[in-house]
Amino acid sequence: VDTELFRPVPKEAARAALGMPPDHHLVLFVGRIEPLKGIDTLIEAMAMAFKHREDLRGKVELAIIGGDVSDDPSKMTAEMIRLQTLRHELGVEDLVTFLGKQDQATLPLYYSAAEALVVPSHYESFGMVAVEAMASGTPVIASDVGGLSYIVDDGVTGFLVPDQQPEVLADRLEFLLQVDPLRRAFSRRAVEAAQRYSWSHIADEM
């Protein structure tokens, strides 16, 4: 991971650069829009955790980065249609936003602005976005599968959760957003842990 590009940016500055309110709680997903990524589990978890929390309405948002966003269903992939339909059926249009693809210059701002990156994949051989987020000082909540099981240190840099269990993911999400000291501790440790994946460290290892 390029730790010069992906590095902590003060949260207030990152949110201001993205035009977000300073008290906004951003949950982030970054990746391809396909069934293997488990985005449906994440949308269901957001509905469970925050749909009935009136105190958090307008203050919590899941931003999904990836894929092509279009108002024309004929231009959407089948998975994008399925996810947008699920969002509507669960009544969480105000909690879930599809942002489409973002360039490499903007992505570090989203990582730094977020309270957490969620990687709900059914499988990941490695999980590069998890390392990018950690290098940016963002805690990661990820499925306990594949390479994610080794990247995320459960209870140290984030949480590992069982695959396809939205109720567990909802609990971890809500807990992390409510406990500021824990989130700050995860953030510090995440930056340290990500350094072992830096270009210079990997070159030395090779």
Outline:
The protein is an alpha/beta fold. About 40% of the residues lie in helices and about 15% in strands.
Characterize the structure shown.
With 206 residues, the chain is an alpha/beta fold. Helices cover 42% and strands 14% of the residues. The protein has nine helices and six strands; from the N terminus they run αβαβαβαβαβαβααα. α3 links the parallel β2 and β3. It is globular. The two termini are 15 Å apart. 42% of the residues are buried.
List the helices and strands and how they pair.
Layout: H1 11-17, E1 25-30, H2 39-50, E2 60-65, H3 78-90, E3 96-100, H4 107-113, E4 116-119, H5 128-135, E5 140-143, H6 148-151, E6 158-161, H7 166-178, H8 180-194, H9 199-205
Parallel strand pairs: 1-2, 1-4, 2-3, 4-5, 5-6
Helix pairs in contact: 1-4, 2-3, 2-7, 5-8
Proportion in helices: 40-55%
- Amino-to-carboxy terminus distance: 15 Å
What is the beta-strand fraction? 5-15%
Shape: globular
Helix tally? 9
Mean pLDDT rating: 94
Q: Indicate the structural class.
A: alpha/beta
CA gyration radius, whole angstroms: 16 Å
* Order of strands, widest sheet: 3-2-1-4-5-6
Write down the secondary-structure element order: HEHEHEHEHEHEHHH
Task: List the defining traits of the structure above.
six-stranded parallel beta sheet, globular, alpha/beta, 206 residues
